Amino acid sequence: MASPSATRVTARRRQRSTRLTVAVALLVLAAAAVTGAVVSGSWLLVTIAAFLGVALGAAATRITHTELAQARRDAARDRAEQAQAYRVLTEERTAEHASYAASMTERIAERESALAQLQEALGDAQRRAADATRKMNAEARRADVAEREGQRIVSRLDEAEQTAAEAVVLVAELEQQVDVLKAELTAVTAAWRASEATRKRA
User: Fold this and answer.
1) Is the pTM of this model over 0.70?
2) Per residue in 36-80, pLDDT tens?
3) Element containing residue 66 per DSSP (H, E)
4) pLDDT digits (tens, 9 = 90+) for 80-106
5) Distance of CA 159 to CAs 153, 156, 163, 164, Å?
6) Which of 14, 63, 78, 145 lies 20 to 30 angstroms, CA to CA, from 21?
């Protein structure tokens, strides 16, 4: 089915063709009348044909002028309609561009927000990693200190065991000396008692 604009254009072309055909027919009729009058040789007919030719030429000129004015009006209407269509198209494209720009702006804002959240999460993770590293280093230092302290304790324990062993040996020697001294004391006491008993008897 043809659009209304195409139908209007077809009707205008048909109307223009009819007008131009009538104008040409009038000019041909005027030329034929003048030619017939000249051939007849009558000045009256030539005069009438001349006036008729001028009238028909004027009518053809008027029809052509009307056709030209109508063509200009139609062209101006077409240009106005085209300009209106371009304006509507421009408004639609402007609206689409504004919508696209708003959508892209919203997407950019979402991406920037997501990026900010990721950066914040990354910063938190880095801080937690730094804290964990510090704690691990502190625990490592504590373990080193505990290991060194354990080594000192083991060394002291070894020294204490050696000192205890030496003390046991010393105690055994002292016990032997005490036994010797007790034996000597017993012998001396016995000798003293014997001498006392001998002195009393004497």
Assistant:
1) no
2) 878 877 788 778 878 878 887 888 888 888 888 888 888 899 999
3) helix 43-201
4) 999 999 999 999 999 998 898 898 889
5) 10, 5, 6, 8
6) 78
- List the one residue out of 93, 18, 28 whose CA is nearest residue 63: 18
Convert 151-171 to b/e letters by CB count within 10 Å (16 or more is b).
eeeeeeeeeeeeeeeeeeeee
**Which residues does 60 contact at the CB level (< 8 Å), separation at least 6?**
22, 23, 24, 26, 27, 30
**In sequence order, what DSSP letters do the residues of 96-157 get, joined into one string?**
HHHHHHHHHHHHHHHHHHHHHHHHHHHHHHHHHHHHHHHHHHHHHHHHHHHHHHHHHHHHHH
Classify residue 202 by its DSSP letter: -
